[in-house]
Amino acid sequence: MPATRHLYLARHAEAEHENGSLTGKGRHQAVALGRRLRRAGVDRLHHGPLARTAQTARLVARELGATPVRAPEAGDYAPHLPLRAELPQEHADGVLDFVASLPEHERLPGPALAHRALERFTGPVEGEHERHEAVITHSYLVGWLVCVALVAPAWRWTTLAPANAALTVLRYPPGRPASVLAFNDTAHLG
Q: Which H/E stretch holds residue 167?
């Protein structure tokens, strides 16, 4: 029998642009995020492959007492490559220019990784017990998973920009549509 999944999504904490290492502020953000996730009962933690997500996850994991698991699906990529035909005319040029400006290594594998992320992180879970799991990722994936949960147009991921270490919570109950319980919540960051 399936059970409800609670998915806690967080963009990585603040990092240096040059090397991707967390800043001092970013380390404080990660610890605060970990404390918040511990209070929520999170017991599974996934993170993207880049340094800023891995470092954030290690600090969060210390607070949770969990082992972080590296997940390529939680990487930094464009989850959906919109076509002009699906875009409102007044936004088409801006959205297409933005997506075209992304590096090829973020664009080309993006849709396939996004599909794998849906399979791995969304929907109800098998078993009798609710699951509370967190994914430390990047803003594009957070925005896209919110769009999918709300059945919003796929291109809208380009318009959502969660803050560093902000928390987004999605719920996937069996037999019911997904819910967005929180988006871009920074209350734990003080």
A: strand 167-172
Contacts of 120 (CB under 8 A, 6+ apart): 46, 71, 73
Angle, alpha carbons 53-188-66 (nearest 5°): 50
Q: At what angle do helices 110-121 and 139-150 cross, to 10 degrees?
A: 60
37 CB-near residues (< 8 Å, 6+ apart) = 8, 45, 60, 63, 64, 134, 167
Instruction: Sketch the domain layout of the chain as residue ranges.
Output: 2-185
Q: What is the 8-class DSSP label of residue 15?
A: B
DSSP class of residue 165 equals: T
Q: Which CATH homologous superfamily contains domain 2-185?
A: Phosphoglycerate mutase-like (3.40.50.1240)
For the chain, state the CA radius of gyration: 16
Q: Which two tokens stand for residue 171?
A: 């719920």
CA count, 13 A, side-chain hemisphere, 111: 7
Angle, CA of 20, 137 and 115, to the nearest 5°: 130
Q: What is the pLDDT of residues 53-74, one digit of tens each?
A: 999 999 999 999 999 999 999 9
**pLDDT tens-digit map of 152-180:** 999 999 999 999 999 999 999 999 999 99
Edge-to-edge, what's the strand order for the sheet holding 131-137?
A: 68-70, 44-47, 131-137, 5-11, 167-172, 179-185
